TrEMBL record, chain A:
Entry keyword Repressor: no
Gene3D superfamilies: 3.30.300.30, N-terminal domain of ligase-like (3.40.50.12780)
Catalysed reactions, semicolon-separated: 2-phenylacetate + ATP + CoA = phenylacetyl-CoA + AMP + diphosphate
EC number: 6.2.1.30
Gene Ontology MF term list: ligase activity
Record-linked CDD domains: PaaK
Name assigned to this protein: Phenylacetate-coenzyme A ligase
This protein's UniProt keywords: Ligase, Nucleotide-binding
Keyword Plastid: no
Organism: Pontiella agarivorans
Family, similarity comment: Belongs to the phenylacetyl-CoA ligase family.
Listed pathway(s): Aromatic compound metabolism; phenylacetate degradation
Enzyme class: ligase
Domain AMP-dependent ligase C-terminal: 345-441
From TrEMBL, chain B:
Alphabetical list of Pfam families matching this protein: ACT_8
InterPro entries referenced in this protein's UniProt entry, alphabetically: ACT-like_dom_sf (IPR045865), ACT_dom (IPR002912), ACT_dom_pair (IPR045739)
ACT domain residues: 5-79
Protein name: ACT domain-containing protein
């Protein structure tokens, strides 16, 4: 299909060299950086020092990588409570950039970068793009939002530093996105997976045939998505869909990235140290077992973040990756401990519903979960849009689709919930992160 | 010998059918006949209109799911036994009806029965060899070009 796929796979971008470090070299580097970072945070971040003093731990107590467990966790609320600049560890004269989270659940979180931090960010983004087989000569359409959101500028500078051509189109204006993709010869696109689904619909409406476009890779992130969604996107468009992971609190996009094996995400461990803990007991979890991902920044000067609780649920993949990178991988993050809701005593993640819907052939994953309460009972309704493919013109046909979807959800969740087929476009399209759950309880 | 029919998915909510009718009316598309199959959750609207393709694009632009399907139009005289006679032919040929609806062209003269059978080609042959008049588009729309 796309013969140029990974045509330079044998060439390793110089920035990617740390991805191939020998294990002991990498751990040595991590320890060195962890100790320096602990000291830097201790000396310059009041909150961190106070917490260390409360437990009597000093930076000197960090002698091995396991000693990281002696350090206090950082919570999202810590970033909020110290809004806006309370966690900055350098004078403002050294801060060259500010970004902020969307603040959908309260006050935004402000994050800072020194010149050096921006360089690190660029480097991890080059390494991320290189994981997806991108290189100089690629034309990268950056449909992540520009502005305070880290996605836009993070991907922008990374792609530029890779020496690729960047189209800084930002999010929205779908018709223009498709036109640009066709006319400018875009070979890779950065977007949230839900926005790209929207673009797929648009392209169909405009009569665009995917094989006619030179697009061969999608770098999708900024929201949890599933393997089923990846298969759907790849099946529809013939491109390769890569998962990128990052969060503003840590640096932005570029904390982790899927490689050509497309099995889990490599974490750029020389800059970000990862742990998996039991979200309830905080006990470390062995490799391969699921828990909450904890990240410590190992090189960030402006705002070090020690043992950040991501609320993202994943596990470390113990096996070595076929791609040859030695930095470890985590499994795709499809669930967040704070996305979970409980319905009739059952824990439900939106991603489970998505996986169920996608398992039923030819279902376009435009769906929404509506939670309500009636008669003291929690009710869950899944609304799924009917498409030209799923609509047959007989009642029997539509009811069969309804039953298939309903059964698939019941099978995954273990409970039967209400399923409603709705007309297309009844569910609001998002230009950024998709809102999957509407809780009216 | 088959006729194009437009099928539309409708959510059961007030005003939706009216919106659809208004859209077609505003664009000068005439409905020859219409049938609505309804369930608790949704409805399927089936229409024979003067311009099927145009109606489909209009509806899709407004966010409806619309599909063009084929039906067979059989003309019978508007008197007791008209439908029975057609069904007898189909039964003998071992064909089943998926759905059907009907309209009369001029009361007391002729009725047109619209059928969706499980085997459309076989149905046409069976009806024609039994002497039934299977209408094509020209017969139904004498005043239109296509």
């Amino acid at each position: 299909m796309h013969t140029q796929w990974n045509d330079r796979e044998s060439l390793i971008h110089p920035a990617s060299a740390p991805d191939y470090l020998r294990e002991e070299q990498l751990r040595k580097l991590q320890l060195q950086r962890l100790r320096a970072m602990t000291r830097h945070a201790y000396e310059n971040q009041t909150l961190f020092r106070e917490r260390m003093e409360a437990t009597g731990v000093t930076p000197d107590d960090v002698q091995t990588l396991d000693d990281i467990r002696k350090l206090p966790f950082t919570q999202k609320t810590d970033l909020r409570d110290t809004y806006p600049y309370g966690l900055f560890a350098v004078p403002m004269s050294e801060v060259v950039r500010l970004h902020a989270s969307s603040g959908t659940t309260g006050k935004p979180i402000v994050v800072a970068y020194t010149t050096e931090d921006i360089e690190v960010w660029k480097e991890v983004m080059i390494r991320a793009f290189a994981c997806a087989g991108l290189h100089s000569g690629d034309i990268v359409q950056n449909a992540y939002g520009y502005g305070l959101f880290t996605g836009g500028l993070g991907a922008h500078y990374g792609a530029e530093a890779l020496n690729a051509t960047v189209i800084p189109i930002s999010g929205g204006n779908s018709e223009r996105q498709i036109m640009v993709m066709r006319d400018f010869g875009t070979t890779a696109i950065c977007a949230t997976p839900s926005y790209f689904l929207h673009l797929i619909e648009y392209a169909e409406k405009m009569g665009i045939e995917w094989p006619d476009l030179p697009l061969r890779a999608g770098i999708f992130g900024a929201e949890p998505w599933t393997d089923e969604m990846r298969e759907y996107i790849e099946g529809k468009t013939g491109i390769k869909a890569f998962d990128i992971y990052g969060l503003s609190e840590i640096i932005g996009p570029g904390v982790g990235m899927a490689c050509s094996e497309q099995s889990g995400l490599h974490i750029f461990e020389d800059h970000f140290m990862i742990e998996i803990v039991d979200p309830v007991t905080d006990e470390p979890m062995p490799d391969g077992e699921e828990g909450e991902l904890i990240i410590t920044t190992l090189s960030k000067k402006a705002m070090p973040v020690m043992r950040y609780r991501t609320h993202d649920i994943t596990s470390i993949i113990p096996e070595k990756c076929e791609c040859g990178r030695t930095i470890r991988r985590i499994n795709r993050i499809a669930r967040r401990s704070d996305d979970m809701f409980i319905i009739r005593g059952v824990n439900v993640f939106p991603s489970q519903v998505e996986a169920a819907l996608l398992n039923v052939e030819e279902t376009l994953p435009h769906y929404q979960i509506v939670l309500s309460r009636s008669g003291g009972m929690d009710q869950m309704e899944v609304q799924v849009e009917v498409t030209a493919e799923t609509f047959t013109d007989t009642v029997r046909g539509v009811e069969a689709v309804h039953k298939q979807l309903s059964d698939a959800i019941a099978h995954i969740l273990g409970i039967r919930v209400k399923l409603t087929l709705v007309e297309p476009n009844m569910i609001e399209r998002s230009m950024g992160k998709a809102k999957r759950v509407i809780d009216n309880r | 010998m088959k006729l194009k029919q437009l099928s539309v998915f409708l959510e059961n909510k007030p005003g939706r059918l009216r919106e659809l009718c208004a859209l077609l009316a505003d664009n000068g598309i005439n409905m020859i006949t219409i049938s609505l199959a309804d369930t608790e959750q949704f409805g399927i609207l089936r229409l024979i209109v003067s311009d099927c393709e145009a109606a489909k694009s209009l509806l899709e632009e407004k966010g409806f799911v619309a599909k063009i399907t084929e039906v067979i139009a059989v003309e019978v005289s508007d008197e007791p036994g008209g439908l029975r006679d057609v069904l007898q032919v189909e039964e003998a040929a071992e064909i089943s009806v998926e759905y059907m609806y009907a309209f009369t062209i001029k009361s007391g003269e002729n009725a047109v029965l619209l059928f969706r059978f499980d085997d459309m080609d076989k149905a046409v042959t069976a009806l024609q060899s039994a002497g039934f008049k299977v209408l094509d588009r020209v017969a139904l729309f004498p005043n239109t070009e296509n």
